[in-house]
Every structure is written in C-alpha cells, then in structure tokens.
Model the fold of this input.
Amino acid sequence: MAAEMDKREFIARRVAQEMRDGYYVNLGIGIPTMVPNYLPTGMDVIMQSENGMLGIGPYPYEGEEEPDLINAGKEPVTEIPGCSYFSSADSFAMIRGGHIDVCVLGALQVDEKGNLANWAVPGKMLRGMGGAMDLVAGTRRVIIAMEHATKDGGPKIMKTCTLPLTGVEVVDLIVTELAVIEVTPKGLLLREVAPGVTPEQVQKVTEPTLLHAPDWKTISA
Amino acid sequence: MDKRVANAEAVIGRVQEGATILMGAFGTCGVPENLINALIRQGTKNLTVASNNPGIDGYGIGALLENRQVKKLIASYVGSNKFFEKLALNDEIEMELNPQGTLAERMRAAGAGIPAFFTPTGYGTMVAEGCEVREFNGRPHILVPALRGDFAFVKAWKGDRWGNLVYRKTARNFNPVVATAADYVMAEVEELVELGQLDPDGVHTPGIFVDAIFQGTNYRKPMEPGPKRKRGA
Done:
C-alpha cells in the first residue's frame, strides 16, 4: 500500500474497480461511502438509499440542505437527474428481490464461510441492524470493505465469527488495505496483495488459512 | 365524503392506553409531528410503537419516549437516541429489533391481508430465534408474522379530503406502508388541497387507506448533521 495514501482511501479505490456501468449499488456507512469518489468519469453507477431513493447526488452546499432529502445515514444529500423516490416497502423489494447488483458494507468480522458480523458491537447496547440483514440476504453480490485487522491488531477475518451474525454465507469479496480475498466454497482465496506486502504478511493477520490464487496479483488502486 | 378533521386534537382521543401505533418517518424525515405532539399532550401510556427508528432526542418519537408513554418499541435501529439507550439499559422499555426490510414487509403484508411470510433475511442470526425455518429453492427461510397497528400516524406533503396523499422526496419512507396496515389511519399533511387538484397518476397513497386527514402546523423538521460541499470547491 502506498504509504502516502490513506488506508481507507486505498480500500475505497480498490472497491470502485468492482463497479460497472449500469450497476445499482447500495453503500453502507464508513469506507463504502467513499467509493463513488473513485469511479471513472462517465460511468453510470446508480446509488440506492434504503430510505427510498435511487440516484443520490453529492452532499449539498452549506445552506442548501433540505429536511425532506436525506440518505440512509440521515445525512442531507442531493438528487441527480433521473433520480426517483419510493416507499420503504418498494425499497426493500429492490433489495430483498435481488434487484441491487452490489452492496458494499463494513464489517466487524467475516469468516471462512462468508458469514458476516457487522451490527452488534461488543460491550455496547444493541443499536439495531437497520437494513444490513436485508442487504446481505438479497443483494446479488456482497463486498466487504474494511481494515484488515482490529485496532489492537487482532484478526477480523476469522475461522468462525464470534460476534452476532448479520447473515450466513453471504459475503462474496473482502477488500482490505492488505488484500483482496474471494469467498469460495473451498475457503478464502487470496486474489490480490497490496504493493510491498507479501502473502505471508496477509496470512499473519488472518485467522483461517488462505488459499493462494495461482495468478495472484498486486493491487493497483 | 369528507375525511377532514380540524387538527390532531380532533382525532387523538381515539388512541387508548395500550394501543399499537405504526408511525411513518426515517430519522427526522417525514415525521408526523402534529399527531405525536398531540399524543404527548394527551399523555396516553403503555403504547407499543412501531417505527423504523426513534430519531433524535427531544423530537418526534424521541419526545414520546421522554414522556414515558411507550412500553415497547419495534424498530430496526435505535442508535442516535441517547434517552432510548438509557431506558433500555434500565429495562424501562421493551425493544424488538427487526431488520428494516422485514419491518417494512411485515407492515406491507398486514396491509395486503397476508398473515405471515417466509424470508431469507435474518436466517441464522439472532432475529431467527424461535422462528419456523423452511427451505425454498435450496435456501433456508424464516417465517415472520405480519405487523398490524390499531392506529397509523402518517405524514404526507399534500392531501385532499378523500385522504389521497402525496409525499415529498425521502420523507415518503415508511409513511405509505404504515398507511395500509392499521385499523384507523390518521394523516397529517403540509397542504390540504381541493379535490381534483392532485394528479391522479401521482397519488402515492389512495384515499381508501386513510380515515382522517388534517393540515398540520408549525413543522420543525430538524436535520441531523452531515458533510457539506463548499462553494468553489
């Protein structure tokens, strides 16, 4: 990973490469919200917000925020031409009915089977899962964008998640500042490694044994 | 037919102790402020409230919580409300967390005469505890019951005396869903218009779902913080 580049930016840039023209995408809070900043110009990727909006624009200018127009993180946003609004029931028909191409979410833990834990923070009162359980159950492809290890260096990619689950066997791809890892029926497949990082270094901060893709590459973000 | 009432006070007396109320809103957006404020003034207690999230302290459902009128809250997210956290930690309120889409679908199902439905959402998680599991297309699903209210509180942008409603932008959220799923549906609008003034093709909630409608006053519509763009940037 380029030293001068912020870890979170690096992850967001790599996730942006997973997007394709015409995708409908739902982004979770945190690193995922940074992804649109790194999409190639001219690529139409439509952002869905589960509170009932397709076609989210940039944040408003100071003083131009509208109380009737917010994203799922409750932040004031703007609309882009072609935007549409709908009810929460229609919004989750999109999500649960498999109409969203990709969702990008943060995680507390992901395990070998693609199980995800991202809603119940240890030692804190349960705050609720919001739309996360629906998103991971219904979206065609689930990408996790997160820092590879916990703040004190412990693994977040586990043999088995120990925190309360958000979904069972739902994750497709994990993107961190160290690696790009695909969840496969045989286990976690190391596809890409950050510049200057070795597969051994990635393994050190990953609990389950990683399979190495024969053609593994260096991340270019 | 005329479903207009003078204001929230004119209908709020129907809400009795122990009632279940479905409320539209997402955070501080699309909140039935007048109805909630009237309910606070009335002081009815032991309520079960189902709404996506209780929003911020001191406003909307947050204010109802502070007045200790809610026995149980059904929601998908309770973060950003400190008072709720205090009540929950002291076991002074019951909380039922539903995945947001499951919450919406439970209300949609109730409104459409569907008593329960199977969904893969939440399978294998805490919310599946005690649920019947059945496999469809090789995938496990859990059985979830519909959620109906005695009352629904709806906030819309415009409406007419037949109860036809139009919402504005993301203030729509759960409002049209709760409007279908309660025995008695109260709608407050920012502007009450003459019959025929709403474009029939643009009506979001047809009046059949609404029992009482009035024009609300003094909307506060607070906004939660978020990043802003700078001019010239």
In short: Residues 7-218 of chain A form a domain with the Glutaconate Coenzyme A-transferase fold (CATH 3.40.1080.10).
